[in-house]
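note to self — DONT lose this again. spent like an hour looking for the file last time. sequence + predicted structure for the chain T wanted, 667 res
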Amino acid sequence: MNVNIKYLLLLIVSPVVFGQAKADEWHLSANSRDNYYGVAMANGQIGIVTDDTPLKTKEIILNGVYEASPENGISRIVRGIEFLNLHLSINNQEIKSDNIDNWHQMVSMKEGTSTTSFTFKDLVSVDYTILANRAIPYSAMAIVEITPKKDIEIIANNYMVVPDELKEAKSQFRVLKDNQYMMPVFGTTAKTLFGKHLVSASTTFLFDGQSETLKQTGNEVGFAKKLLKGKKYRFAIAGGICTSKDFTDPLNESERQPIYALQEGIDNLLNRHKQAWAELWKTGDIQIEGDLDAQQRVRFALYNLYSYIRPETRQSIAPMGLSSQGYNGHIFWDSELWMYPTLLALQPDMAKSTLDYRSDRLQKAKQKATIYGYKGAMFPWESDDTGEEATPTWALTGIFEQHITADVSIAFWNYYAYTQDKAWLKKEWNVLKETADFWVSRVVKNNDGSYSILNVVGADEYAQHVDDNAFTNASAIEALKNTIKAATILGEPIDPRWADVSDNLVIHVKNGITQNYKGYEGQIIKQADVNLLAYPLNVITDKKQIEKDLEYYAAKIDPKDGPAMASGVLSVLYARLGNREKAYSYFVKSYLPNSRPPFGVFSESANSNNPYFATGAGAMLQAVIYGFGGVEQTDMGLKYNKGLLPKQWKSLKIIGLGVDNKTITVE
């Protein structure tokens, strides 16, 4: 363990990180295309994943849009039509991936943009910037700047890529006219694989100054123009993508996106996007002085969390956010336990959206409880747009990893505790009540009057069909106690069984160590389980017990395939115990082995390549906020304890905490 930690620390201070150069606290920069993993330019509605190929995106992910997958019929988040791609020719020579030089890519976290720069022979230098407009949720834009080194002629054509999972694609180009306004619109419409949704993307070109005449050539639309040496030329492809999930008529709504862009122009669209990002950073940011690498990593984690959700959309966040179809884009406990605490602290309107998502699907959770012979509400382990169980049938987690129901309930209580909003609590009371009713129907009474929960999969998913899993039982205890508190506040009837079960649900201890489950004998575990009882559950509060459990289970976590979250939790706990060195070591371990080139996007484990793992980002950010920052979630809102600064940092500032947007500084 110590050897690994020293190795990690050596890695982090290395001057070369993933080929980055000229980066700063707001920008991530890459000069190498080797082993390239892109970044999602996302606005909470659409995620556009960058590519190392010039003038092209890798894929587009559509939030909350699901269709059955051909492999097993299980729902999967949908890839959209890639509508920002460009074919560019200079003097009839097409720019391709293998004929450019001086490739460089810069991600601006501050402004939510990715800019790829390159040169083509001795003719031009090109900058290609893409963004998913933060201010206009269904809209995106690619801005192209060309600096000629000689007098040249360019041909620029917008083309769209329809992924295999869409069918019956149809494209059209037409010029609409309203009085003197000519509005060229290029669009493609397709159906999802089994016809559940219609997907429509539309674009146009925006120009500085005089507009060029657009022409259609095959399935591309573009223009030709002569440029003079040294005179920079700028244009943009602007448009949007809409689906029948959100619109009765996605085709016409998608066409309104480029028409709107034509009237706004490049700079207005860009400025609105930048302003929307500026507002987010103003109300929720983390500033680390003295450690540029840590600052970049932390801010990149925030950037990704913010990118994957929008307030008031009643959507949640999947483990991979809007960066890929990983885990089918389903919603897990990752949202409530790992990402939600950071959003609650810094962007509560985003956090509330994840709760709205669950509230909207309460009836389906009640249906699932009924299916298995229980009372109340039993939330699915994997959830999609329907709220029904979406876990592949071969995975036992779908039926037996039931702590998710308590995780949801705890998140709801914590939102009330944060806001003290009794009207909201009253409105959402049924979520707490129904989940509490599930637990009292789920437990089994033992001969001594105690209660057990039998046959579950816990947070440690290596242990299947176990009894009295520590995290499952403890989260049920916490959920039941919170429900009693909420009932007291609201004057609602309190079922005496809630108190009986929460007071007598078994958590096993053997040889002074809290047991992962009944009969646990020291096996390797997938991820933190027992340690979660100290944080975030606060079921174990004795410092000596916390320390014993920490030392014991830190050595049991799978070093090869264990997901990133465990190290984030261990960092929080060691910080709260005052152990600066171990807290920092686990903070580094929560991201560094999982970082992938060239920007350091998160993978789920040290041994996987499936970025971006927003769940891991959430755990790493909790280490900063609730560990080093000294922030504590209590029943009366956030409490600000004395933080603990790693010796590698000069100061830590967290901006936008709590309902009063408090700023705290740890020095």
